[in-house]
Amino acid sequence: MNKAFDRYSSVCFALVGALFVIESRNISTSAYGSEVGPNLFPMGLGIILIILSLRLFWESTRARTESSTATEGKTLQYKRFLVIFAATLLYVYLLEPVGYVITTFLFLFVTFKVMGSKSYIKTTFVAFAFSAGVYYVYVHLLQGTLPGFPVWLGF
User: Which UniProt keywords apply (predicted)?
Assistant: First the structure.
């Protein structure tokens, strides 16, 4: 890891998070048939991004500088990046026609496996529990709206 790069990227991410928070205030505060407005998630994600950026900045300034010999043997993992990037694009493209629970489950499953999860059972369970749990909490408890299951499944 390059500590200078981490410091600069943390500042950039904090600025992007601040932009999310500022611009989410321009979104209407309520949606038709929903108790939760569409400005909630962008604002929350912006706040989380700012907090994580501040932590990255703090850790990168606090840590000792690495020697050049520690970073010589490391290679960039382009294959992992491209697979996760393609999975993200497919997730965005398939969210509406396939539904939130299925696309989120597939996205999480693929990214967990790419990042090195060894157990298919644990990966399947965590991906399904997260996607179904978020759907239940957001749609049923908070009265928000997310794309449901596709019509061809009969749900």
Answer: Membrane, Transmembrane, Transmembrane helix
